[in-house]
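Fold this sequence, please.
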Amino acid sequence: MATKKPRWVVEKEQAKKAASAETVWLFGLHAVRDALQNPAREKLRLVVTKNALDRLGEAVVAEAGVEPEMADARKFPAPLDPQSVHQGAALEVKPLDWGSLADRCLGDGERVPRVVMLDRVTDPHNVGAILRSAEVFGACAVVAPRHHSAPETGALAKTASGALERQPYLRVRNLSDAITELQGMGYVVLGLDGEAEATIEQALEGRRDRPVALVLGAEGPGLREKTRETVDQLVRIPFAGAFGSLNVSNAAAVSLYAARAEG
């Protein structure tokens, strides 16, 4: 008689199977071109108009090893949202595998590591913009929980303007556990909170040579209680006026600049 598998084993196997079957449709010339040129990206299907293929470049498509399917712009067959500005190009891909938190956040040995962590930031446009800022400021990774965060989507990739292919975006099972893991690696973990007493600069005085992780919450709710309890310190961005506030993607960019290692 066969032994029945425990429920947690079955659920883990189902999740793994679902993840292996998951694909993403990227759209727009910039996002599609960057994905085609990324050797780490598994490409499955390319749908293009003649004009889009000319703009992408036949050499780029040929080197990517995917046969283009020619399409009419008025009857574009890729399964995209009707509102998507696809510019005649759509590419079905597998999500990128960036490896483990430890591997990515140890740094490159040249720059002191900086990491952005997102606590339930679900808007793909915000996350795409944060990936762009993280790339500009040389962050090791953007880290978010697997659930209650923006997955890889065409909209996220388009907003990221190519950064999705180059900037590690790690989806972890539990954000608090990830914070604890970074603390064990020597990171100073700062949570952004508009009501905090200390600014980012004050919190990092004399500690800019340490690896730093900045945790940002969703606009409105902010950081969850568990996250607030786990970080090393709550900090704020200093505003000139009494009612200052920033969109989360702008806050990420300002925070990364404020936390730069050479400051």
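The chain has a mean pLDDT of 89. The longest helix spans residues 7-21.
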